[in-house]
From TrEMBL:
Name of the protein in question: ATP-binding cassette sub-family B member 5
Annotated GO MF terms: ABC-type oligopeptide transporter activity; ABC-type xenobiotic transporter activity; ATP binding; ATP hydrolysis activity; efflux transmembrane transporter activity
Its EC number(s): 7.6.2.2
Domain of life: Eukaryota
Source taxonomy: Eukaryota, Metazoa, Chordata, Craniata, Vertebrata
GO biological process, one term: eye development
Organism: Jaculus jaculus (Lesser Egyptian jerboa)
């Protein structure tokens, strides 16, 4: 069924994206191909006539003694040859015009259609429902977007023109053969069924193998995308080698399939040549028999005309096979692409249907809603849930992790539809509303804020169409983001980096809140919106959100119950149902589940609980812990790009340097090359045999003729056997070498990426999308122009070399004339190659940028859908494609012109060669046999040159790809994780010291984050960092992991500078739990075992870590327990569940140093309390550095350090800092705590 549909797509719908102009171009291109294809058989007809005239003329000269008759005969011969020469010139002119049309028109229409396919594929992916993304790997989709569409472009370009040209040459040659001698032609065609049967079988096998190969590469691409987008986690846990092995495993599958495909592909060509040469032998033997038997109308010219027509037809049929394979591969690639394009999503993000109410008031009702995620249908998340929210109300959803709170808000955004029941807004079922219109009235701030790799300004403006500068600044002020933004060198034009990596967690959250506020929605959804903020920022933002909530319906999801006390309605959700609801006072009076959670939040142990202390604006007791105060270094005012991305020139890559990439596969390359040389020797040898076959008719002895005809027929069959064996050897050895090269280079490139330092990934040029595009396209282009092309170069070089040598032996004068045109052909080829290289370089950059946009969109599809920014990203993607499209249209003219000129010039050279050859024969300076040897040898040599020039664009792409690859492989990271040079102490005590550390991020060198920071953590002690957003807390954690090195000062471990330690050893002593937990697309067990990648972790040990992180019972309740798949980036789990898995992963590592960067920020209070106990247990005997906003989690720390502007403001224990009644005291007061002094 799969193959049938693939065929259907290939045959009927393959050109479905062609418009009127494209159809016109294709029709004209096909017509041009038909005309151009007819030129080669017509040349055979002219060649046959010339042979007849020459042989006849020579016989007349030999047998004529009368001078007058001889002179008349020579004059008639000259006249006939001259006329036939002009036929040659006419054929060449035709080839010049129509050759240009066929190539340029098809390249143009391919570029146009490919761009539409790219646009439509991206559009279709953006239109899909979220459940579809849950079941599809983002990395695999991105690989298909690059590799598969690239294959489609190859399949519908000039290769189609060449396919039609070769098929036409085959058909016209066949017709000429039938007209000239139907008997001889039918004998010649007797082996055609064998040729067709072998081609059909091979084609079917190639389709099947191509499908498997594409699938394997897609899986490898998915791994690469997942790993590169989570590079900090991978590096922190020292999992580079593990991920390289995971990536390589998929590459091995692709390699094994690729080798089989290469063998089958070459065997199909070898079979064609075997049957063709067998046919030649049979045809020559039979043709000779017809002449010897005196059949009327048969002469050497007739036989040669038929022979050459059929030979050229068969040669063209053989030449058509690679182009047909390219078309077949494109057809198979189109199957998966068109499947996605044609899929009708259950919730179409671009739908224009549905009711569009003029205004939405915001009354929401959940009616008997039941729901389970499509990826886990057996597990009900919501069970008959009912809830009504009045317009303008603020409703808080609280409850344990995994109770269904985040699922409710996803259903409210209509990311999914309920299985049972309904959700109404203003009494309208949201399924009846136009989805885009509805979502534009909904604003969302999620638990894990998503920023896009552009400026702060653009990120905020993504909230709504046509946002003014004033509205943007107002929203930033309301979100308390304005101050820290204005302190940045480029203010609102500062780039946030991929996924906002250049911003701290709190800064990202503030920008996301500003984006939601500028949207001015009727329904505001806050899913743990302030979880990443420090206390003061949280209070300020909370006040702004409460103010904003007065004019809209607000749904809040929160674990910190202090943020929901003022809600109009608090809803307690547990196990997918509403168990309690009411106002704060009502629920406290009930003393139910809400009351229990509320009590668990208190961090005071005093008997008397106080009331909340509000910090109003201007309150002198509230010390402003302002956002990071930037310190501008002495540097010129320049844009971020000019600082980060100086122009770097790629290394110059020669053919020899590209070939050196194959040195590991030298034995297979050598054997494959020997097979190519053997194959390349066949045509020069054939030219000698052919000339002798022609000239045997000068002898009138029938027995000699018959004997020679039989000998030469057998030799032709031997040539066929040699071709089959040599092609099989090429397929086997080059297949092994080529696929091994591709696997090795992909592995090396992936490894080189994983071992770069974090600063390299901060560069926007090295985004995940750009890097995955490099892995997908650069390697394929290098493979396509090295291994398999080595065979073509060796074969054609042998062909041309031997042809020239033989030609010089048999007729040096004629050879010199023909070779005089070689510089013209070479120059034409150089122009084409140079132009193709230039366009390949430009296109590669644009393709990387487009890939970056596509990857970013797919990774953050939930945010894009929530913001209704699908069309924005679609437009950005199309803009990148536009430049590439213009380059392709220019390339079409140059490639078409160079091909046509080179193709036509061969005909002109043939015309001159025959005219000059005839003159030499008449002058007695050359024999007819010598002339035919030279002509045939050089003709085949010219075909070899032409075939080599056809692949010039592929070489250009390979040269460009090799330059990028070598630049990557040769780049030495500043912090080399692969290095074994550093110290590896026998033990690690865990004493940490920062000694006068100053630091700025390499991508923002004019913003100093840490300034002469000094502190010490004794062995086994716990130090907690608190402070405002951007004060350097998380930066300190990254420096300790040696993601970066200080610009000044030292980070020491047990008194040894971290720079002197082996990087892998250093990181093996550290485990981290980050603010935004990163999980991988695998099972629960695999994600926990990720904590220790040096061994195979037993399941019991995994369970022990899960118990310690308070998640074991939850896992045991899952349908597949520890084998349950967590989904891409843990999409199947709630935020709290992901965080607890991350904690289990860290505990399994059994580190000497534990880094907790907001480790419990995503947990509900009940879970946080239990996990906190587990973490406190885990901290025993270990050095621990904590970053926290929840002060309840750090009061037992041995030392609490308050950071401000990259320096220590105050430090001490919890009680000591409370007694000081300074910054820390006021932070605690702001968290509604009365402290006992």
């Amino acid at each position: 069924f799969h193959q049938y549909e693939a065929k259907l797509y290939g045959s009927v719908l393959f050109f479905r994206f062609a418009n009127g102009l494209d159809i016109t171009l294709m029709i004209l291109g096909i017509l041009a191909s038909l005309v151009n294809g007819a030129t080669l058989p017509l040349m055979s007809l002219v060649l046959g006539e010339m042979c007849d005239h020459l042989i006849h003329g020579c016989l007349v000269q030999t047998n004529t003694t009368n001078y007058h008759n001889c002179t008349h005969s020579q004059g008639k011969l000259n006249e006939d040859i001259f006329m036939l020469t002009w036929f040659y010139v006419g054929i060449g002119a035709t080839a010049l015009i129509f050759g240009y049309m066929q190539v340029s028109f098809w390249v143009m229409t391919a570029a146009r259609q490919t761009r539409r396919i790219q646009k439509q594929f991206f559009h279709s992916m953006l239109a899909q429902d979220i459940s579809w993304f849950d079941g599809n790997d983002i990395g695999e989709l991105n690989t298909r977007m690059t590799e598969d569409i690239n294959k489609i472009g190859e399949g519908i370009g000039d290769k189609v023109a060449l396919l039609f040209q070769n098929l036409t040459a085959f058909s016209v040659g066949l017709v000429i053969g039938l007209i000239k001698s139907w008997k001889l032609t039918l004998v010649t065609l007797s082996t055609s069924p064998l040729i067709m049967a072998s081609a059909a079988v091979c084609c079917k096998m190639v389709i099947s193998l191509t499908s498997k190969e594409l699938s394997a590469y897609s899986k490898a691409g998915a791994v690469a995308e997942e790993v590169l987008s989570s590079i900090r986690t991978v590096i922190a846990f020292g999992a580079q080698e593990k991920e390289i092995q995971r990536y390589t495993q998929n590459l091995k599958d692709a390699r094994d399939v690729g080798i089989k495909k290469a063998i089958v592909s070459k065997m199909s060509i070898g079979a064609v040549y075997l049957f063709m040469n067998g046919t030649y032998g049979l045809a020559f033997w039979y043709g000779t028999s017809l002449i010897l038997n005196g059949e009327p109308g048969y002469s050497i010219g007739t036989i040669l005309a038929v022979f050459f027509s059929v030979i050229h037809s068969s040669y063209c049929l053989g030449s058509a096979i690679p182009h047909f394979e390219t078309f077949t591969v494109a057809r198979e690639a189109a199957f998966s692409i068109f499947q996605i394009i044609d899929r009708k999503p259950s919730i179409d993000n671009f739908s224009t249907t549905g009711y569009k109410p003029e205004c939405i008031k915001g009354t929401i009702e959940f009616k008997n809603v039941s729901f389970s995620y499509p990826s886990r249908p057996a597990m009900k998340v919501l069970k008959g849930l009912n809830l009504k929210v009045k317009s303008g109300e603020t409703v808080a959803l609280v409850g344990p992790s995994g109770s269904g709170k985040s699922t409710m808000v996803q259903l409210l955004q209509r990311l999914y539809d309920p299985e049972e029941g309904s959700i109404t807004v203003d009494d309208n079922d949201i399924r009846a509303l136009n989805v885009r219109h509805y979502r534009k009235h909904v604003g969302v701030v999620s638990q894990e804020p998503v920023l896009f790799g552009t400026t702060i300004s653009n990120n905020i403006k993504y909230g709504r169409d046509a946002v003014t500068e004033e509205e943007m600044e107002t929203a930033a002020k309301e979100a308390t983001a304005y101050d820290f933004i204005m302190e940045l060198p480029n203010k609102f034009n500062t780039l946030v980096g991929e996924k906002g990596v250049q911003m701290s967690g709190g800064q990202k959250q503030k920008i996301a809140i500003a984006r939601a506020l500028v949207r001015n929605p009727k329904i505001l959804i806050l899913d743990e919106a302030t979880s990443a903020l420090d206390t003061e920022s949280e209070l300020a933002v909370q006040a702004a959100l409460e103010k904003a909530s007065k004019v809209r319906t607000t749904i809040m999801v929160a674990h910190r119950l202090s943020t929901v006390q003022s809600a109009d309605l608090i809803v307690m959700v547990k196990e997918g149902t509403v168990v309690e609801k009411g106002r704060h006072a009502e629920l406290m009076a009930k003393r139910g589940l809400y009351y229990s959670l509320m009590m668990a939040q208190d961090i005071e142990k005093a008997d008397e609980r106080g009331q909340s202390v509000a910090c109003s604006e201007g309150n002198t007791s509230c010390v402003s812990l302002c956002a990071m105060s930037s310190v501008k270094l002495d540097c010129t005012d320049q844009s971020v790009e000019s600082i980060h991305h100086p122009e770097t020139s790629l290394p110059e890559v020669s053919l020899l340097k590209i070939l050196k990439l194959n040195k590991t596969e030298w034995s297979s390359v050598v054997l494959g090359t020997l097979a190519s040389v053997l194959n390349g020797s066949v045509h020069p040898a054939f030219s000698i045999i052919f000339a002798k076959m022609v000239t045997i008719f000068e002898d009138h002895d029938k027995s000699t003729l018959k004997r020679d005809a039989e000998i030469y027929s057998v030799i032709l069959v031997i040539f066929g056997i040699v071709c089959f064996v040599s092609y099989f050897m090429q397929g086997y050895f080059y297949g092994q070498a080529g696929e091994s090269l591709a696997m090795r280079l992909r592995r090396l490139a992936f490894k080189a990426m994983l071992y770069q330092d974090i600063a390299w990934f901060d560069d926007k040029e090295n985004s995940t999308g750009a890097l995955t595009t490099t892995l997908a396209t650069d390697i394929e282009e290098i493979q396509g122009a090295t291994i398999s092309r080595i065979g073509i170069i060796a074969q054609n070089a042998t062909n041309m070399g031997l042809s020239v040598i033989i030609s010089f032996i048999y007729g040096w004068e004629m050879t010199l004339l023909i070779l005089s045109v070689a510089p013209v052909l070479v120059f034409t080829g150089m122009i084409g190659t140079s132009a193709a290289t230039g366009f390949a370089n430009k296109n590669k950059q644009e393709l990387k940028h487009a890939g970056k946009i596509a990857t970013e969109a797919m990774e953050n599809i939930r945010t894009i859908v929530s913001l209704t920014r699908e069309k924005t990203f679609e437009q950005m993607y199309e803009e990148k494609l536009q430049t590439q499209h213009r380059n392709n249209l220019k390339k079409a003219q140059i490639v078409g012109g160079c091909y046509a000129f080179g193709h036509a010039f061969l005909y002109f050279a043939h015309a001159a060669a025959f005219q000059f050859g005839a003159y030499l024969v008449q002058a007695g300076r050359m024999t007819p046999e010598g002339m035919f040897i030279v002509f045939t040898a050089i003709a085949y040599g010219a075909l070899a040159i032409g075939e080599t020039l056809v692949w010039a664009p592929e070489y250009s792409k390979a040269k460009c790809g090799a330059a990028h690859l070598l630049a990557l492989l040769e780049k030495k990271p500043t912090i080399d994780s692969c290095s074994q040079k550093g110290k590896k102490p026998d033990t690690c005590e865990g004493h940490v010291e920062f000694r006068e550390v100053s630091f700025f991020y390499p991508c923002r060198p004019d913003v100093l984050i840490l300034r002469d920071l000094s502190f010490s953590i004794e062995k086994g002690k716990t130090v907690a960092f608190v402070g405002s957003i951007g004060c350097g807390k998380s930066t300190s954690v990254q420096l300790l992991q040696r993601f970066y090195d200080p610009v000044k000062g030292q980070v020491l471990l047990d008194g040894v500078d971290a720079k002197e330690l082996d990087v892998q050893w250093l990181r093996s002593q550290i485990a981290t739990v980050a603010q935004e937990p990163v999980l991988f697309n695998g099972s629960v067990a695999e994600n926990i075992a990720y904590g220790d990648n040096s061994r195979v972790v037993p399941l019991e040990e995994i369970k022990e870590a899960a118990r310690a992180a308070n998640i074991h019972s939850f896992i045991e309740g899952l349908p597949e327990k520890y084998n349950t798949q967590v989904g891409l980036r843990g999409a199947q789990l709630s935020g709290g569940q992901k965080q607890r898995l991350a904690i289990a992963r860290a505990l399994l590592r059994k580190p000497k140093i534990l880094l907790l960067d907001e480790a419990t920020s995503s947990l509900d209070n009940e879970s946080a309390k239990v996990v906190q106990l587990a973490l406190e247990e885990a901290r025993r005997g270990r050095t621990c550095l904590m970053v926290a906003h929840r002060l309840s989690t750090i009061q037992n720390a041995d030392l609490i350090v308050v950071l401000q502007n990259g320096k220590i403001k105050e430090q001490g224990t919890h009680q000591e800092l409370l007694r000081k009644r300074d910054v820390y005291f006021k932070l605690v007061k702001a968290q509604s705590v009365h402290c006992v002094t």
